[in-house]
Amino acid sequence: MKKAILTQEVLNQYIDLHKSLKMPYKLTLSTYTARIISNYCDIYFMKAEQPVRVFAAYNKVKLDCKKVPVAQIKTSTLQYYSTAFQHGDFYADEIYNIDIKSAYASILYNDKLISKKTYDYLIKLPKMERLASVGMLASKKHHYEIDEKGEVTLDRIERSETSDYFFYCVKRTSEIINHVSKHLGEAFLFSWVDGIYFYQNNEKASISAMKIITDYLNENNLKASYDKLTEFEVKDKKEYYHCRFLKEGKLKYFNIPKIESETKNAIINHLLTKSYN
Amino acid sequence: MANKKKTPKKSAPKKAVAKPKKTPPKKQTKKAPPVPVDTKKSKAGKVRGSTAIRDSKGRYVTKLFANEVKLTLLASKGIDVKKVHADNFKKIDKLIKENKVKPQEVKKYYEKRKFIFEELNEKGELKGTWKNSNQLQEAIEEYQGEIFINNGNKTKKVTKDEASLIINRFKTSVVGSINAQDFAVMPTLSLSGKMTFNIPSPTKLDKELMKYFGIEDIEELDEFEAAEISEALTSVLESIYRGEPDLVLYIS
């Protein structure tokens, strides 16, 4: 098996080659990897080679987690963001942001799914590596078979047996964030995964809001980082909010989908699940 | 001429040429006895009239559409109506009776959600809710209608397996080359059983991005900040789909 760095261009070239040769092939896709197997080649693409310590951390987390069962979680119920924007565009010179530090690692440790030793190992890793090690819990591979006519068959989906531990982290994080947003009341603007964004029209009010949040997070054995964001601008698009602001002088963007009413969800679910035959 | 002069002004206007017909004198008949009113029927008719679903222009919706409303209401009560077609009047009536759903409840349910139902009734389709790549694949696995993907050039009918491949290739592409965490689309769903959503071909997206930044290799995107890429993507996707693309990439 040959190894290569995953780029869309190279992957496309291999796929196009098989298409033009009318040669059947097998394609495996995961978020960070791809593999093509045929009579012509066996090549494995990956985004970037992860350091050994990422796999070591993942193995530690996996071994710890497997000792404690967690309930199955429906991914369709998971919440990654929430908003409290009013209709129309919005601008504020300053808003505030609180991010939970090492959210997923802390939740795994606080909820006794990993040991102190594993937790300490995890939090020493750089952010992206830590995310990769925990993210591997939910890895998923799709195995496709493509015949000489180019017709696709999804052969099987290989789901990690530890997916629910990762989704548990997502679920717990959103619960904590939702709780914090309730503390903030009208000051709350939006949340994105483990970060919460709020507006206060004076410094004093923002300090007291931060104290309330800090106390709540401390009670839950969580640490947080605080930032003042400037030139915060929201554009109210038809189906999403386009947010733009400066964090430590660096420009940041978010596109946050609008959340639909429960009513619309019910109708959509009916259309998605009904029989049309 | 003489006749004309004699014609009294009041009874015959000048333009009138036809002579008024003589109406036969009314016969002096006995008054017919009053027809006995079927109060049950009349009451039922009034109830039907007051509980029938009308759109905002006052028009009655079709019976089939009214059945779709009933099915949605039943589904919201946790009743499995997946296999019940809107044209299966007997089955729907049975379910409605079994679950003690009154016509007033159906009307109230519709009235409260009129703005959504009307879009569905008028266009025959409804823009769905945002679904990230996992949620989209779960929805497709369960979906029993036809699936269409608009890649920016054309809308093509695909099988479930092809849709899965397109979604995952796009995900691998945006996670790999653009450093997005994931993406979400907003599928449009029709009453006739069509699901349509937008996913540009990764090649087209890469080409447009390279054009936007004036680079020759997509790998050079690494030199740009996530915020710049995010802004570029918004613009590129809007240009590919000539408006809001019903697709967002999660980049933070």
> Strand order within the widest sheet of chain B?
1-6-7-3-4
Number of strands of chain A: 13
The name of the CATH topology of the largest domain in chain A is: Alpha-Beta Plaits
Query: Number of helix segments of chain B?
Result: 10
Q: Note the beta-strand portion of chain A.
A: 25-35%
Terminus-to-terminus distance of chain B: 97 Å
| Relative helix content of chain B | 40-55%
What count of structural domains of chain B?
2
- The largest beta-sheet of chain A arranges its strands as 5-9-10-6-11-12-13
Please sum up the structure shown:
By secondary structure, chain A is an alpha+beta fold. Chain A is 38% helix and 31% strand.
Describe the structure.
- The complex is a heterodimer of chains A (277) and B (252).
- Chain A has two domains: 2-51 and 139-159, no CATH class; 72-107 and 163-273, Alpha-Beta Plaits.
- Chain A is globular.
- Chain A has 277 residues and is α+β, with helices and mostly antiparallel strands.
- Chain A has helices spanning 8-21, 52-65, 103-110, 116-123, 127-135, 163-184, 203-219, 262-273, and strands at 2-5, 25-29, 33-38, 42-46, 81-83, 90-100, 140-146, 152-159, 188-192, 195-198, 224-236, 240-247, 250-257.
- The model of chain A has no long low-confidence stretch (mean pLDDT 91).
- Chain A has a seven-stranded antiparallel beta sheet. In chain A, strands 1-4-3-2-7-8 form a six-stranded mixed beta sheet, with helices on one face.
- In chain A, a hairpin with a 2-residue loop joins strand 9 (188-192) and strand 10 (195-198).
- In chain B, the strands form two sheets. A five-stranded mixed beta sheet of chain B has the order 1-6-7-3-4. In chain B, strands 2-5-8 form a three-stranded antiparallel beta sheet.
- Chain B starts with a helix and ends with a strand.
- In chain B, helix 3 (63-76) packs parallel to helix 4, helix 7 runs antiparallel to helix 8 (160-177) and helix 9 packs across helix 10 (226-240).
- Chain B folds into two domains: 52-123, no CATH class; 126-250, no CATH class.
- With 252 residues, chain B is of the alpha+beta class.
- Classes of the chains: A alpha+beta (277), B alpha+beta (252).
- At the A-B interface, helix 1, strand 8, strand 12, strand 13 and helix 8 of A face helix 3, helix 6, helix 7, helix 8 and helix 9 of B.
